[in-house]
Design a protein that fits this description.
Length: about 210
Amino acid sequence: MVRRINDSLRLVPVWLVWLAGALPFALLVWDTVAGGLGVDPIREIEHRLGRTALYFLVGGLAVTPLMRLTGISLMRFRRALGVLCFAYALPHVLAWVVMDMGFLWAQMARDIVKRPYLLFGMLAFVMLLPLALTSNNLSLRKLGGQSWRTLHKLVYLAAPLVALHWLWAVKVNEPSPLFWLAAILGLLAVRLFVQRPLAWTRPKRA
């Protein structure tokens, strides 16, 4: 069964992931043009971009645990998921800088220091930036495999910070950020405690 699933996944082109990843942005643009963002459109734009970035971040984190626990490999799509995460994180930050804060740099700096959710979010963004810039074959060759892999381990720090950013930002007792924080911690725990694919997931020798 696992082999059939993996064989089917190898037939899925990576560009289809990129296309699917563009759909949330297209829907956001449509809702913006159609006036479907509610009474606080700037807040809605920021939140939708941020949530979508988190979803792709979790999707990328889940690739290795999924393979180790089930044998199903989505490794071909992991780079696309990571870049899509940043493709939503960047406009999320820009929406705050431009539309919310109006380029008031001094005020932004004071808010980042004063408000934990902004501090967590900016720290996560700074960690994700070099990962996005080096998510290409040229960077992999220049850095070398070991250095490249070490750099990209920053995602293990950035992911919990993203969830904490959302958790501290909400003004009500909302369960969603707690769920995603737990999901991220669970995925990281699998990576830590399940170092290799489980025996039953490995292909049997003929």
